[in-house]
């Protein structure tokens, strides 16, 4: 409307198109060089036998994926990743929800406790992994010292294949719970107060009834979002494994991204590593797809 | 009356305090061990306070063995460089996608949405090969360049600029201000809330990142704080947990202190920004 005041419509449009291209050009260039082309190259690499330092590369079709199916180490990495996600996602989502409800029901200490639980989200994961290494140390660690105090001989948390994945998952829950707590708090404050009053009038007198009838259904979209984002964060587990276990002992804590890192940057088998990367990407995309499916069907409320 | 309410609130506060202490446990023991001599740590007593204060020795060892300031400086350069280019690329693109009509804008927005689906680990292998061919491994370029494009930032700024009133921009055009100047002089000053939120999100992500620095950096010259802790742990500290915890405290401190000073902004920046992505 006001644009027509200054310029004839035609010049205005070409000028606008030119400006649009000029302003998006730097981003488009960086996007092509740093994201699009390398991602396409990863997809292409997965179908080759490329190794860093080798003279050439050959197109080998699905051989890398066939090898993945036979690779015991990869099967373990995939299984461990799924197990890790299956432990971390529910515990940190439900934990985050419980903490959010606990904080939301009162007025005292809200900002304080929110900050306390959020602290792990901003702390350097490598440094905190070192702190966990000390805390969970079998002989000098405070946790086992405390357990000895009550007559229990604690396990070697991070160096026994029975407990290593559980320990890493506990660290994962610790890293994610504050993030989820904050997302749930945002969702909770968006629920209109009147709905609780209305539910009470309708006979929902207990806290549990109000949670079941009002909070939980209205929190649906938040919960779905928190579940997917936690799962995608958990699938990416890398730092704690790289620092604490390097996938050991005996591959008991091998996970997808660490396997990809090892194949690509320790053994320089880039083609094979790219195939692992694609499996990782497929899982991430499947989670997003699942989210949109559920979003279409389930979370309609009203 | 308020006292009665406080009394009723006590179980909730007590429970939150216990849970909060559990979450803080790694920090508490990390700081405690960084103040203790090794023999006290090895006695595995549950006393938090050191019998003999060994802080000077532990922290002194860290400063003597590794270039602490160098690592922190590298972290600042890398995070600052990444943020600078992210804003330089994403703010104009976000503005163009929000306010300008041009052929190809639909494809550009589609590319942004597609990019949001791809974790940064996916392009890592070819990027590594590329930087290695160019002889750019182990330097700031390799650390910064791959993160300069943030589709998330473009998306965030596009959403934010959509809600800016058109009149503001029309008025500027009337005055004969070019589109590029509009971005930096009119749009960006109005985008501070989105820009600060994104800045915090970006700095926290890259300060804490281990994956990419571990791939491209070799040796202490360009090591980021995350790599610094890793190197110290494998090379110097070994079983010297006192010094290792001191190093961990030093490298974690900058972001944690910034967080404690600006909690609300941090939480908005990281979590609420994530909510929109």
TrEMBL record, chain A:
One of its GO terms (cellular component) is plasma membrane. Keywords: Cell membrane, Membrane, Transmembrane, Transmembrane helix, Transport. Coiled coil: none annotated. It is found in: Cell membrane. It is a multi-pass membrane protein. Pfam families: BPD_transp_1. Residues 78-291 form the ABC transmembrane type-1 domain. Gene3D superfamilies: MetI-like. It comes from the Bacteria. The keyword Aminoacyl-tRNA synthetase does not apply. GO terms for biological process: transmembrane transport. InterPro entries: ABC_transporter_permease, MetI-like, MetI-like_sf. Belongs to the binding-protein-dependent transport system permease family. This is Carbohydrate ABC transporter membrane protein 1, CUT1 family (TC 3.A.1.1.-). It comes from Muricoccus roseus. The lineage of its organism: Bacteria, Pseudomonadati, Pseudomonadota, Alphaproteobacteria, Acetobacterales.
From TrEMBL, chain B:
CDD domains: TM_PBP2 (cd06261). Residues 72-262 form the ABC transmembrane type-1 domain. The chain crosses the membrane at residues 71-90, 102-122, 142-161, 182-207, 241-262. GO terms for cellular component: plasma membrane. It is a multi-pass membrane protein. It is found in: Cell membrane. One of its GO terms (biological process) is transmembrane transport. It comes from the Bacteria. Pfam families: BPD_transp_1 (PF00528). Keywords: Cell membrane, Membrane, Sugar transport, Transmembrane, Transmembrane helix, Transport. PANTHER family: ABC TRANSPORTER PERMEASE PROTEIN MG189-RELATED, ABC TRANSPORTER PERMEASE PROTEIN MG189-RELATED-RELATED. Belongs to the binding-protein-dependent transport system permease family. This is Multiple sugar transport system permease protein. The lineage of its organism: Bacteria, Pseudomonadati, Pseudomonadota, Alphaproteobacteria, Acetobacterales.
């Amino acid at each position: 409307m006001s644009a027509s005041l200054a310029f004839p419509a035609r010049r205005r449009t070409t000028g606008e198109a030119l400006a649009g291209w000029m302003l998006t050009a730097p981003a488009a260039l960086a996007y092509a060089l740093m994201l699009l082309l390398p991602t396409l190259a990863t997809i292409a690499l997965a179908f080759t036998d490329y190794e860093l330092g080798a003279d050439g590369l050959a197109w080998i079709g699905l051989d890398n994926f066939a090898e993945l199916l036979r690779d015991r180490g990869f099967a373990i990495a995939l299984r461990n990743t799924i197990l890790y996600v299956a432990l971390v996602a529910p515990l940190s989502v439900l934990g985050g929800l419980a903490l959010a409800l606990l904080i939301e029901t009162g007025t005292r200490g809200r900002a304080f406790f929110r900050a306390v639980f959020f602290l792990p989200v901003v702390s350097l994961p490598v440094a905190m992994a070192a702190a966990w290494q000390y805390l969970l140390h079998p002989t000098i660690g405070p946790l086992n010292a405390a357990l000895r105090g009550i007559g229990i001989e604690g396990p070697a948390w991070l160096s026994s294949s029975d407990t290593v994945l559980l320990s890493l998952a506990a660290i994962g829950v610790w890293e994610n719970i504050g993030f989820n707590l904050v997302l749930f708090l945002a969702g909770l404050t968006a629920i209109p107060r009147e709905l609780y009053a209305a539910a009470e009038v309708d006979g929902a007198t207990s806290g549990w009834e109000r949670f079941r009838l009002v909070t939980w259904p209205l929190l649906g979209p938040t919960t779905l979002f928190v579940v997917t984002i936690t799962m995608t964060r958990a699938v990416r587990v890398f730092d704690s494994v790289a620092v604490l276990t390097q996938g050991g002992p005996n591959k008991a804590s091998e996970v997808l991204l660490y396997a990809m890192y090892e194949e690509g940057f320790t053994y320089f088998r880039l083609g094979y590593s790219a195939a692992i990367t694609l499996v990782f990407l497929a899982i991430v995309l499947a989670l997003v797809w699942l989210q949109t499916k559920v979003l279409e069907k389930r979370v309609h409320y009203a | 009356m308020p006292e009665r309410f406080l009394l009723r609130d006590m179980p909730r506060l007590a429970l939150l305090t216990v849970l909060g202490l559990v979450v803080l446990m790694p920090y508490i023991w990390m700081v405690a061990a960084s103040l203790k001599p090794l023999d006290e740590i090895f006695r595995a007593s549950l006393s938090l306070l050191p019998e003999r204060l060994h802080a000077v020795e532990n922290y002194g060892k860290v400063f003597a063995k590794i270039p602490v300031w160098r690592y922190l400086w590298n972290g600042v350069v890398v995070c600052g460089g990444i943020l600078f280019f992210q804003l330089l690329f994403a703010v104009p693109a976000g503005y163009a996608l929000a306010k300008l009509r041009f052929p190809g804008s639909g494809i550009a927005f589609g590319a942004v949405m597609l990019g949001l689906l791809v974790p940064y680990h996916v392009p890592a292998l070819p990027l590594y090969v590329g930087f290695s061919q160019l002889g750019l491994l182990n330097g700031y370029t390799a650390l910064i360049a791959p993160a300069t494009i943030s589709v998330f930032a473009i998306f965030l700024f596009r959403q934010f600029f959509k809600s800016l009133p058109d009149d503001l921009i029309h008025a500027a055009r009337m005055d004969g201000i070019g589109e590029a100047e509009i971005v930096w002089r009119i749009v960006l000053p109005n985008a501070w809330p989105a820009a600060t939120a994104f800045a915090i999100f970006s700095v926290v992500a890259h300060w804490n990142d281990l994956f990419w620095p571990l791939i491209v950096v070799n040796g202490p010259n360009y090591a980021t704080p995350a790599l610094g802790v890793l190197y110290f742990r494998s090379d110097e500290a070994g079983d010297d947990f006192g010094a290792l915890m001191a190093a961990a405290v030093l490298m974690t401190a900058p972001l944690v202190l910034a967080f404690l000073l600006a909690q609300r902004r941090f939480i908005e920046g990281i979590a609420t920004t994530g909510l929109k992505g």
